[in-house]
Protein 1
Amino acid sequence: MHRDKRRFFVPTIVLAVIGACVVGIWFLSADARREIDALATANADSTQWSIAQTEVELLTLETAVLTAMHDNSQAALREVRRRFDVFYSRIRVLQRSQQLERVREEPEVAETLEHAIMVLDNALPLIDGPDAELRAGLDDLEEQIADLRNDLRFVTLESVRVFARLAGQQRERVANALLDLAVLIVVLILVLSTTVFALVWSLRLGQRRTAEIALAQSRQRTIVGTSIDGVLVVGRDGRVLDCNPAAERIFGYAREEALGARMADLIIPDHLQQAHRAAMDEHLSTGRRRILGKGLVQLEAKDKSGRIFPVELSIDTAESTEGEIFVSFIRDISDRQHAERELVEARDKALAGEEAKAEFLAVMSHEMRTPLGGILGGLELLSGTDLTGRQKGFVDMMSRSGQLLLHHVNSVLDISRDDAGKTVLRPELFDPVELLMDVVNSQAVEAEAKGNRLLVSTGDDLGPVIGDRTRLMQVIVNLVANAIKFTRDGQITLSAMRDPGGTDVEFRVADTGIGIAAEDQARVFDDFVTLDTRYAREVEGTGLGLGIARRLVMAMGGEIGVVSQPGSGSEFWFRVPLPTGDAIALDQDGAASDGPKAGSGPSTSGLTVLIVEDNEINRAVAVEMLTGIGCETVQASDGAEAQRLAGQRGFDLILMDISMPRIDGISATRQIRETSGPNSLTPIIALTAHALPKDIERFHQAGMTGVLIKPLTRKSLVDSVEQHCSRRVDIPDTGVEPALSAELAQRAASEIAEHLSHMETVIGEGRAFHELADRAHMAAGLAAVSGLAALQEAFVTLELAVAELEGEEGEADALAELLAEARDLFRREGQAG
């Protein structure tokens, strides 16, 4: 209750004071108005008296003149002159007085005064003349003075009227000014009142905040006191101002021991003392903050016993009544670092174990595949000999078991390669419809054995696409094989459809089998997962097929999933980006639909073709193929020579290799296009062993007309010539590519062996790996023209791996492993050849 009385006491007093001020201002204003009115009235009375006195002086002058007219004495004339002078001075005062300035502003008043002055000035010679002349002119003077009587009466009345008006205006202005003053004072008082109320409110708010601050300080003291981190407060002189119990526990000093002591002597290890002093001196002199406000910093500290241990420190400055202070939060991280070391060691051991396991699987799979190949080859040869029916049955059983084992080994090798990040994609142009048909043909026997039918359904907008056909086929085969396993006397449908307006193609494999439970659908793509179904006794497998499919789809930048209900079948789907092949001449599958058809133009006889290829064998193959269809050829070994030849004569077609020394194919094409030479419009076809969509786009931007993917085939070459040169080829298409001559095959094998040896030297001596990529590129071209497809793929993989693994740990070992695989393939394929 007393608090409520005090709450209203101060505002009441403030309001009373304000009321008293308002009343006082009101009385003061009224009194000032009376005084101003009185002052204004006195001034007006004084001025009007002067005007009336002028009129009296005129009458006195007139009386003196009349007296002198009847009195011939000198005294009478002197009185006339004296009264004239007084009246004249009065008129001059009226003409020059500042108080009468507003009166003289009236035109009639000013004209009347001028007339009076003129009359008086005309009388001056008579007044100042001899007495006889003055006495003689008294009659005229009396008449002139009588005429001035009315004028002076008019001036007097006008003055009264003007002064009355001016006095009223002045009083009105003073009254308005006083009113404005009163309003201003009232406003000022209101502002002051508001200010007083604001101050009172601020005072109360300050009191509440003070209470809140006190409460917060109490909480903060509790938090700091119970914190598990040590808190040290140090002054600019380096002495401890405060600490919490955690700091006592961490460093072993009692609070009484620490307060006032130098912090550096208590907790800074000897080997850090000099650095600490230098940092403190630098901050105090320059303000530089090395670790102040930088967050968590790991340092070393020492306790009372001298033990040095790691700490995590956060320190910053604050202002206090004693100036700048340093507040530090310190945590002993000895146990944490010990646990981290143990975790790192455990992780390293686990990673080493995983790497060892992956390496073991890869090595064992690779080593098992070689003897398996020999066993399967031997069984195939044995099946061609004279065997009894029973023996053929044993051979077929061993062959099927060997093929199954080889499939498992290849699956493990694929997983190991993917886990090691060595899966390399090789984009090429292909028809997805033909791909699906190839899968159906390859799986037809297995499907029929279970009584299943294989169907294909595709959209009309697919067309040729760019992607890794081999990997894509592997995914679809795995999905189809999985569907065959779990479907009896049913139907398996393969479908493909392009997303409208996009680059993705969605493939689906739907079956009418047993289906998959909802709780199992999330793990069917895990490795080594085999679901427990009613066909479990009859279905074989390692559970790797779907895991490999998931890895390959993700490697191609896609996604995979399944939709299924038990008893209603399953539908596996995956979506991968497959750009359309419109940008590439249909080199491998035939000429573009809008190009000229075979036989629609003149013969290729006499057609001149410039072949730009740095590999002599590749040039020889291209020359042989072009010569065989009646073309004339000119050869260049690099881009510089191609530019020179292209500037000398015109060609009907230019075949341009991409990767060449000195000047590459892209730069050479740009130069040819930018000059106004004879080949600025000649079709230029890129020759490359592998090309991603972005590379093909780059080729076209440089001015290339089309792309031929190595190995160069007669069909692709003929189609390209017919398309770009509008010529027909008059040779029968037997469907069989001409074989490489024995001489060229031997030279190609020798160069491949030389490239392998050189690449092994590059890796062994630790030289720049870009040289390894160049050699792998050339070897891939040689393998392509030699018909060694697997070896070509191995060299392409090695070339791409050089860029993908650049700067990574274990780069040399990974490249050496890929090179060893290529060497092994060359040895086996060379022996087979």
Protein 2
Amino acid sequence: MERSTLLIVEDEQLIALNLSLDLQDCGYLVCGIASSEKEAFNMASEHKPDLVMMDINLGAGGDGINAAQRIGSELRIPVVYLTAYTSDDLIRRTGLTAPYGYIVKPYNVRELKASIETALSRHKYEKITERSEKRLKAAVHAAKLGLWEYNVQRGTILFEGLFGDQVNIKGDMVELQALDFFTKLALENVEELEELESLLKSGQNVSRTIKLKSKDGAVNEDRWIELYLSDMTLENGLIRIGAVKDVSERENFVNELRTAYNILANIDESVIVLYSDFTIRSVNKAFYKHTHFSANDVVGTPVSTVLSGNRRHDEMLFDNEKNTRHEVVVHRKDHSHFHALQTITRIRATDHNPELYIMILTDISSLKKAERELNRMAYRDSLTGLGNRNLMNQVLADMECAEENNIGLFFIDIDSFKLINDSMGHEPGDQLLVEFSQRLQQTMRAEDILIRLGGDEFVVIVEQIERHEDFERLAQKIIEICNEPFNISGREIMVTCSIGVAIADETVDCAASLLKHADAAMYESKRKGKYTYTFYSDNLVDVVRYRLFIEQGLRKALTEESITAFWQPIVDAQTGNVVAVEALCRWIDKDVGMISPDAFIPVAEETGLIQSIGLHMLREACMLIKLLEEQGFGGIRVAVNVSGIQLKDAEILDALTEMLQDSQVNPADLELEVTESTLQSENAALLLWQIRKLGINIAIDDFGTGYSSLSRLAEMSVNKLKIDRSFVDNLSQDGRHQIIIEAIINLARSLGLAITAEGIETQEQLEYLRDKGVDSMQGYYFARPMPLAELLKFLPDRHQSARHLF
């Protein structure tokens, strides 16, 4: 058994030595003998004895009481006085140092040992108690508890702890009447005050979670406390002890969870919680509604095996730090399927929770149905059922024009079709186009590609024809489909066609050149008297000369500022007020006059001059916005068409930034119109996103004639869809166009986009589109494109004329 260590403080050596021997005989270890205050403190600091035997009068060495005071307060070592003095003043002074014993000399050894053992035992249990108190204090501090005692006799509460400032109780060890205490807690439900006071007096355990009033100025900050009162008592039952804790974070978290649960339980989207290995952790009720799988069917199962369909995007998530959105096919339990927009969010792991993924599936079946109809219209001519220009462009882009592939392109134009259309009307003209296309289909092979380019122009693309004679024979067969009269509206009429043929060889650099060559050859057939075919050759220089005139003239027009903007107003569908104008590029040559955009825009795109023209139009637009502000027409948006070629590099982004800074116009007053095909380019999509970040609006022009997937459209920062005029032209004659228009409007609404209809020319079109919910309209019915001076005159007059039109 380890012996206790004692330090002797005695100025008389003989007494000290004698005491040392007695202590050692009693089984104690004496670590040293000190004769002064200083020496006593130093030796106590060095040896850390279990007990100090202190003489009070140390003679020249000082005062033992002072030494005891310092050793007890600084070193926490118990002291027993051993002295021959017993005056009342001395006893009072020693009592102030909280000694562990007082032995009067001469001492009895047995009494000495008893006093020492008593002191050591008392110190031992005080240390245990002190340790317990510190641990309790640390626990209270960590838990941010406030402690309180309820005095049953006085009806008061004594409060202390870190939590006081949270409940309007300042200071430490504050004693309040019970009612005042609960009032300071600022309970939201004041009716609980009397109930709590009654519970205090009952002597029962009290454990209540109570909502407090929000602090002054706090918004959406719910405050909660947990109030606890034990049935344990102190001082013979007079004191009951309890605690109070801020549980606002816990209660608010629980309420948030409860709200989130209710949302998940009631939303129509399927929500799937996944572990990091993509096994299913849980699903919501809507998941069963859409897939017919119950939770028991799928929990713990890999999502790919349950939902099947197109799951190729799932694996990408492990390397993706952002939310992902993809269009997927989801299989139901009965093996049917539906299209969904899948959004997956990554929830990072914490110390106590694993990494999770939240998958949300939004049923887009109705939108996909509309998209399929739009896609059909995108690649098929609505009148003849043949392919359209979009299909031709895609086919040509995919072709390799090597000579060994034996590719030929036939450009067909019905002769004098405009005369037939003008004399007999549009409906007979359409009948002629339909019958002509049917005869063309009967003539060609199943693998040949037939295109109605527009109007009375058709294109046939053939492959794997080995001999030049076979191309000639095919051209002659096409000519011969016009040998028999066409029965149109009960009348038999004879029509002819002219054909241009281009064959791929080593001189053709790309498939697109075939179309140009065939077009040039077709015009040569027209020049020769029509009703014939011509193969392209290098001798067809007139077409090249015209192209050269356009190209060189464009460069000159840019330097001479012959390229200008005409402006066509866009009006609000409900009020008729002008809400925007579209900038339309015009080339006014001083010798030739007005040159059609159809003639020079394609050349500008091929030569790259479209970049300069496009920037010029953007500058004109910014100048108009500034001018409209100065003229009192601020807020009218100005729209500019942007070619996909302009979006191939970042030059347009830099230029727009500079223009906005120079002109100091509101970016929201500028709108860029792009075609659907532009959305398919990742580079263009990124540039449009960056342009949108500048505050500029983005509109999809001629919507419904190109191809754009719903997922791509949903991901893009687009503000508006513009319904192509081709759907508006035959609105009253073709019910399919009405279906498409309504599908486009519904699509725009579901994506939160504005919608503008182009090509309005009649009151009937205006009323139909306005009733269907179009936001704005544009067309000759309201105004033709006009120069700037006419626009500035038109705008003030428009307010009056709108009253008569609407």
Protein 3
Amino acid sequence: MNQIHRCCRNSFFIIIFCLVANLLTITSVLAQDIVGEDVDEIISLLNQQQYSTDYFQEKLLPRLASIDNDNQKINLLIQSCVYSMFADQYSEVKICSQRLSILAEQIKNKSAKNIAAIYLIVGEVNLQDSSDVAHKKLSTLYPTLISKHAKIHYDIALAMTAIREDFPILENQILRNSLQKIIGQSNYSFEEFAMLWALSAISKDANEYVNLTLRLLRSSNKHNYVINKASFLYNLQWHLTGVNEIIIANRVANELLKLAKEETDESSKVLLLLAYLDNKARLKENVPTETISYIKSVTTDDEFWQAWLNTVLSFYYATEQNEQMSRYYFDVAKHYFDAQPDLATPDEFIEIESILAFNSKDYSKAKALQDKFWWKKYLTIKTNQQNNIIDVRNTLKKVIDEEQKSRIVVEQLLLKSEQASITLATVLFIIFILVIFQYKMYLKLKHEVETRVKAEVGLREAKSLAIEAKIDAEKATMKAEKANQAKSEFLSNMSHEIRTPMNGVLGSLQVLKQENLSDSSKELVDIGIISSKNLITIINDILDLSKIQSNNISLESLPTNIGELFKSIILELSFLAEQQGITLIFTIEEDLCTYWLTDPIRLRQIIVNLISNALKFTPKGEVSITLMEKDEKVVFEVKDTGIGLSPAQIKKLFIRYEQADTSTTRNYGGTGLGLSIAKQLTNLMGGDINVISEENVGSIFSVVLPLKKTTLKSHSKLALKKTQAPQAQGFDILLAEDNKINQKVFNAVIRPTKANIRIANDGIEAIAEIGKLIPDLIFMDIQMPNMDGVEACKAIKKSNPNIPIIALTANVMAHDIKKYRQAGFDDCLGKPIDVQEIYTLLQKFLTSAQTNKASDIDN
């Protein structure tokens, strides 16, 4: 019987032992103990540190000037960037990265230049910025990184910019992958050290943090890398406090107090003290009165850290149920943070109010405030796990004590051992199932993390390709813009170079026409004038084509007498029709509205091109033009009895540089631009051109324009009538023109007016002539040596703002005219000059001058 009892008793102890072992295994999976020896080694290694961040900034960095080896300088600057980033000293990161960039450029070190670009982005981050700011910029930079060294620092910087995110799992895994690749490589000892630092900084698990910190400090002491002892002790006590490792956390807190008393920097002293006090408050341990007095006596000029110390003092007094002192320090700290719009309100404020509400038994308010803690879920999980471990240990201890004290009770329980064994086996089986389930969940999470890492790598590669494509597209766009600009400049220069000699030709012909010539000579002069104007029309077509192609043409909306516009064009082209023996007929509806809003210059261009085209391709017969109004729209038709067009030819009619067939150019001439420009201008006005044609019968071109009627009257100079030379005897005119031929032509044009004319060869001479005698009117060429027309106009208008100045220029594009108006010119004449336009302007300013003189006499 005793043997049976002994056997049962042994079985019971075996089952108890298995239960204890399994429970310890399960709880160790949930939350492993912090090994006290590891923490002791961390404190020991921290005390062995020979260097500090202050030593690095004050003594090592100034050695840069005395180091001859550029690679040593680069390594020292890279280390400075990393240390400053870990200390949140972003201004120092920026300065060091700029120095690194300059040195890398000098020695052509592309890898160092990439690293400098990474930390320059980090250096431009503010503490108040969200992590997205630097994250997005770094992601854009990644495709340009060429070296493994630079990509390692990219991973470090990316992880550190994500510290303020709740759980940067992806950055953590990326850093781990990079760390595995470089462990043990002598070339990357500092990078291994920095990665361990970054991993410990973003770690949310206390055991992991202790392990990483231990590895980090071993590497630091081995290679003499600098660390911040205060920072590591602060983070260590935070992790230990979060998992209720009370004894070890107290040991670290005492080290913090000891280090604070030795610290000379006020801000660092405050940081250490608030970490110590936060630890004591969270573990609800009393602080000696002399220590509290010492903490309250410490002050700093840095208002930010002083406010944080006041916040922690308020938290400590709240846990001590001293509401008066807690409220006092709470109000002082809150006053500072409320005055800083860029700083977020600390979460500790919510925690303090929650504790005060709990102390005053306002439990509903306390619970509502507790639910706002961003870290509540994380800390609650850790705290519950540790509480479960402690409960299990205490229970097991009680069981063992009871077994040792009460052998009699155990003997009685042996009778029910079989049933207890079955129950315990069932419990163990359930626990085993739970372990398997947790393991599967772990494998699933691991798979998801690996999938996200792969997706991130693929996304980076896709972004790299997208950025390269964008760069290629931008280069192509810039190349096209440069080509378009070069073309525009070429056409503008060609226009100027052609218009300048044409000014002499057309001006001379117009002056010669006013002389007493025989009929045959007058006919030749008229032919020369028409030919010159046709050449100018071709130049204008080429310029307009360039503007349309570059989408750089704009339309005006001016009140225009369309009937008078048509009449002036018919009058101009009637001579050409007479030369060809063609009858030119114009019909206008009686009820047509007089004034319409349109761009008179572009409308004139459309009409001239269509009528000129009809005259060109009509060997005999007539060309009739009909102007009418249909459905509130302006409609005009140009009908001819010319050679006509086939359906195939009509399809190519409005294509640039195309004509009906190759023989057309030989028989009738032309550039093939007129109808194309007319079509595009009509479309820009919202209208359309339709063609009906039959070979050897003729063609009808119909134009429909959706213009708006207006009651305003036109002030356009398009319908200039033949004006006789005004009598301007005693009227003083100053001509500023450097071209001798243009001087003679202009002199010949003005001579019939009997006005007094003076000539200046450039802007400087023009200003000098005004100093001698103020003229009544100035004609000013734009392009002149020494001082051009624009500068001369500005100088003259500054001292004599009432003198009218008319620009003479071969640059007649819209933006040129606008520039001259802004410079102060009262009007503008394009080269080659038109005698009728000169006489019209002369009559206008002559009348104005006479009116002003009469007004002065009356006064």
Protein 4
Amino acid sequence: MLNKTLISLLAFLIILSSCARTPKEISLNDSQERVDQDILKIEQIKKQNQTWEENIKIDLYTAIALAIKNNRELKIKQLETGIAYRQLDKVEFEMLPAIAANAGYSGSERYNASASATVPNTDLAGAIGTSFSTSRERDVNSQDIGFTWNALDFGLSFIRAGQEANRYLITEEMERKAEHNIVRDVIKAYWNTISADKLIKKYDPLLVEVDKALNDSQKIEELLLTKPMDALLYQKELLDIQRALQSQKEIFIDARIQLAGLMGLLPNQKFTIVPTDDPLTILNMDLDGMEKYALINRPELRKSHYDEKISIQETKASMSALLPGLNFNAAWTHSSNDHLMNKTNLEYGSVMGANLLNVFMYPKVKRINETNTEVIREKRLALSMAVLSQVHLANIDYSLALEEYDTAERYYQVSKKITEQIKNAQKIARFGNLELIREQASLLVAELRYDIAYSKLQHAIGKIYTSVGLDITRENVKNINFKDYASIIKNNFKNSGKRYYAKIRKPIKNQNPIVKKNSEGRTSQFSFSEKTFDLEGEGRTIYDALLSNNKPLPSWITFLPSQKTFLVNNLDKDNTEELEIKVIAKNINTRIEDKFTLMVDPELRATRLENEKKLKEQRKLAKKRKQEEIERLKAEKILEEKKAKEEAALLARQEAEETLKQEKEKILLEKKQEEELLAKQRAEEQKIIEQQKADELLAEQKKLAEEQKRKELLAKQKAEELRIEQTEKMKELLMAQRKQIYLQLPENATQVQFVNTNTNKSNLSENLINELKNIETKINDVMLNLDLDKRLDLTKKIVQDIFKSSTTTKEIDPKYETLNLQIVNQRKLLEELLEYSNKYTNY
């Protein structure tokens, strides 16, 4: 028996020692494996989540929607809320009765037998009997199902369930608080990212200019082109500018990564930030309303309220635990023991018990719980004061942000104007490159401060929403995509925010927008009323003016915003008569514009209107004349149409008659053509016959013609010989006549013959005339035998010789002056003809 005990003890110690654990450090492989699993899980989430879009465009409300859907810290809060809800289910199950089902087997090596002794009334046992008995078999199988319910435990479980329910509501409030904080942080990160994108676009080019200027200055210093101190001071100012730019860049350099982390995106996830059309406006409540709303809806205060309820419930539970316990039980049992009369049995009963010392614990437990509840109430009161302070501080921050934004906006506008002045001055070499770079850097810093101020303003508005505990994002985000969720968030902000309106009370076009010349006449101006615009919202009203096509005003007109005046320089103005201008009035929350036509040159307009009036009258007169001409032409057209109709009718009749005539002629023509065709056929036949005869006759005639030609040729030869003979005779006759005329001249006549001159004069003249007629006849015969070219040539030569001979003046004897001029000319002609007769008769 002792050996068995030792063996059992040794086995127990071995089992106990095997359960001992030694510390084991996580290996590098395990860490690497876990990291790989996490990365794989992130990639799977990225693929499965529809919000992971490449290069998605994100505005403020989309960023908030993505943050609420994807932020990992918020998901942890949601999981904690889920755990609290499951814990509530667990506690509710604890209120149910306990039902236990058991089944077992028991056995022994030997019977567990016992003896008995008789006990009389003296309470002294008698002698122990010598026989042993047992009521149980060595091997027994038993089963039972028992029901146990404690009334005190039920009450306590009921109270604990209420506490867990309140704890679940606390986790929901913490989830709300996490959402509020995320919305506030996203607002700040979003506007910082907008500013960072603008900074990066302008920072790098300006930094390149600074580096270039530094290198140039260093070269100048090394080459001793200027004083070393001047060059070093120049480089120091450039480095100060570079350092200022770098410090400003540090403010926003991590804004995009922060925003990506808030939205649940990976650090290398690409996304595009776009400006928001509707920025946030302050909550549409007064300060008292904000305080009341915050005291009712702030998650911290609601959590404190639930903590107080939990404390009160804990007090109830502590008091209830001091009460007596009442236990009810019932069980169904079954055993395989054959010694039992009823192997199956139903057992039931109840038990009540209490710790009497709890009576003394009651006052202390009560005082402790009341103190704990009072502490919680004091905490809630302190938290309420802190919440009210946060509401006031949020409004103060908003007021300070408004002032800072107004100052930053003015500073930015002044910096822009200074930079423009420096750029214009540099064109005429009044400033160096350092001044321009300094002012560009100052402008960039001013713009960044302006963006920072606006980011602070939006963040201040977000803090107001957070301080009052307003729920903007409480939706079932699992059932909607992020774009629809962003639209819901945007509408919630619009409905909760204050709405500002802007209107035009007195349109500028109704204020007689005509410039008036000043006393000196060099400038003209027009001012619109202070009551033109009515703008609601925060900040000062800023005015600006552009052309209606969004282009800047011409250089000769200036808009003075503080005086609401347009100033025109008449010396530089062109021939513009009027301008379409757009005046913009805006503050932080609203913006409105008014378009009108500004008359910049009334005199030019009056001249134009007068010219247009004259032109209109001329056009009216011309139109009247044209109308009269049209009416006249219309009447003429009617007459012409009437005449044309009559002519058309007449022409139609004529055409009908002509058609009938043509048809008759056609019939006659066809008959005639048939007759002509027949006659033609006959004529063709006759022609063929005649052609044959003609060919025979032609051959005969050809033969006769050749004979006749031969005869004519002989006759021509004879005629030519006769002509030559006649020419010789005429030549001889002309020579004889010339000789006779020569002998008849006075210087050649004898004295005896001179006495008979008067008596023979008349006879000589008559004879010469007759002879000249004969010569003329012969000359004509000679001319007829010549062709036209030879005639013209001969005549030309004779005339030329006559004119040449006429130029030499000869003295004429007085006794020949009575001779006829024609006879003299005939003589000259005869002489010339005689001289050329041989030449032309040989042709």
